[in-house]
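Example record

The entry below shows one chain as it appears in the dataset: sequence first, then structure tokens.
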Amino acid sequence: MFSRQALKTTWAETRPYVVFAVILFFAGVVAGGASHGSMGWLDSQIAALQNLADQASASSHPRIAFFKTILLNNVYKSVLSLYLGLAAAIMPIIMLVLNGVILGYLFGLAADGGANVWLLFVKGILPHGIFELPAIFLACGYGIRLGVQVVRGIGRALFGRADPWANVARMLKMSVPVVLFIAVLLLVAALLESTLTYQLVQP
């Protein structure tokens, strides 16, 4: 499971799905950025995120609370998206598009308000995003691949193929090191977001 060859094979098989995940995410960013005016459902999503940040800020140790909130939220959503990919890859696709749309929408609002979007990206996203975004792309890409294998397994079972669920079982086994790697990336991202990014975005 943790051998170098097994990990290399897993990455080689998952890479096309990770690329697809990147495309879906940035398509969402473009769609969100192209929207104009207030959009109720997006505003509610942003308000929920802001509520989490406000709760962390109100604690006696804001940065520690911020770190815990970010880490637990990101790990929970990433692992959930990965394993719920078993349901025909619907959940990881929704997560990618939704997060992309929210990010694009936020940048669009900032641009409409006269803010420097590139500076906002460099200060508010880039420091932790270089770890967080790959983790999300990997989790969702692996989840999409799981969903594809489930659909193929159903087809093999219907046509009476031998051992139709072998690939699904192998992927579930290899998901353990994948999840651990994702957790490490998100841990680093949360550390950076609660320290460096937190400091950079302070007025």
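Notes for this example: The chain has a mean pLDDT of 89. Residues 166-200 form the longest helix (35 residues).
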